[in-house]
Amino acid sequence: MQLVPEFITALPVLKKIEEAGFEAYFVGGSVRDLILQKPISDVDIATSAFPAEIKAIFPKTIDVGIDHGTVMALWQKESYEITTFRTESTYQDYRRPDEVVFVRSLKEDLKRRDFTVNALAMDADGKIIDYFDGLQDIQNRVLKAVGSPTERFHEDALRMMRGVRFVSQLDFELETTTEEAILEHHALLEKIAVERVQVEFIKLLLGRGRSRGLEKMIQTELYLYCPGLRHSGEGLYRFASLEGQLVDRLTAWTLLVYFIQLENENIDSFMRQWKCSKKEIQEVQLAKSALDERLFGTWTVDCLYRTGIEIAVTVETIVGMLTEKNDVSRLKAMFQQLPIKHKKELDITGNELIAALDCPPGIWLGALLTKIEGAVLHGELKNDKQTILSWARSQKK
Ligand code: ATP
Ligand code: MG
Question: Under CATH, what is the fold of the domain 142-245?
């Protein structure tokens, strides 16, 4: 296999472990992505050396997940996660192994991995080690569980969600027995922490095979066990039929709430169930209400100002996906022409108003500032301290 720079810089790490008398391989997603000629995210290394042995080989290490056998080694300004070959014994709660056992065999380690395409290893010479026909599955573009899918999903139910995520991300087909096992055991997903399901769901939505991934998530009924989606099968199908890859999370969430026809006042509780951050929820609320307005007509000054240019561009891009008619440059030009882009650009402060009008602070102040903001925004009042003050005085009379 022809190596790419990400692997070449990591080669000395493999060599150092080998020189100390152990085996070391590149494993997992990076090997899969190398074969698929996709960009490599992180290069993971698996080894027969135990964590203490790795720590003795490298001068600088950090215990990032020592209980699971992962040590981070710092080497020539880069950091590498090195994980000891391990097997996982008896899973009783469908999500976590009761015990992690370190082993010296690569095959044992690859056996516990989720899908055949993720169970490949590569040695320092670029030779691929393929015990589970992962190469053939990559060739045929199918996603297949390693070993018995039923067993694998009972061990860790998140793998079902990872399955539909990889279908989308890689744009692969789901192998039949793997799909049947998900359909049969979908309810196990309930055992998995929402945060972890969310990670996979968002990766699915952002994948280039989103349509296929979403279809599989619906057909296998995994969506029934996702927060707030129980009655949204049809909406998800509509989302699946939308063409084009989504560029970011804001686009994904906004389109999701649009397609499942969630009322705007329910966005907060829906996204809180998904454990989204307050900031992200607010952005989606802004985007969704702007989208509703924009789909109804054109951008208004008030809506654009309230939304802000960044979110507005996202909304305009979404409009393009939904209607094939949008104009981002026109929107940007319109924003440029707003007399103020943000409240903080007003050439007046609350304290200045209090002093000039000689009134004690009170609710009048907020109301007056809002009025000034609106008048400046609409070009009815110049954004200039003296002009604003005399206008405020005239309002007081
Ligand atoms: P990504 O491109 O999203 O990083 P990845 O395949 O690298 O994809 P990771 O979540 O980074 O996925 O996991 C690295 C590897 O660890 C996987 O390729 C797989 O071999 C193994 N793995 C991760 N999660 C699981 C799991 N829940 N069950 C079994 N194996 C897993
Ligand atoms: Mg990875």
Answer: Hydrophobic Seed Protein (1.10.110)
Q: Are strands 78-84 and 173-174 parallel, antiparallel or unpaired?
A: unpaired
Q: Where are the domains of the chain?
A: 1-140, 142-245, 247-338, 344-396
- Whose CA is closest to atom 11 on ligand 1? 29
Average pLDDT over residues 200-220: 98
Residues with beta carbon inside 6 Å of ligand 1? 28-29, 41, 44, 113-114, 118-119, 156, 158-159, 162
Nearest ligand 1 atom to the CA of 203 is 3
Centroid of ligand 1 to alpha carbon of 237 (angstroms): 27
The number of the ligand 1 atom at minimal distance from the alpha carbon of 159 is 27
Q: By C-alpha distance, which of 251, 256, 260 is closest to 283? A: 251
Annotation: CATH topology of 247-338? Methane Monooxygenase Hydroxylase; Chain G, domain 1 (1.20.58)
Residue-wise pLDDT tens digits, 341-370: 999 999 999 999 999 999 899 999 999 999
pLDDT 10s digits, 222-254:
999 999 999 999 999 999 999 999 999 999 999
- What residues contact residue 107 under an 8 Å CB cut-off, 6+ apart? 131
Q: Find out whether 47 and 22 touch, Cβ atoms under 8 Å.
A: yes
CATH 1.10.238.10 fits 344-396, yes or no: no
Q: For the whole prediction, is pTM greater than 0.85? A: yes
Q: CATH assignment of 1-140? A: 3.30.460.10
Measured by CA distance, the residue closest to atom 12 of ligand 1 is 29
- Amino acid, res. 88: E
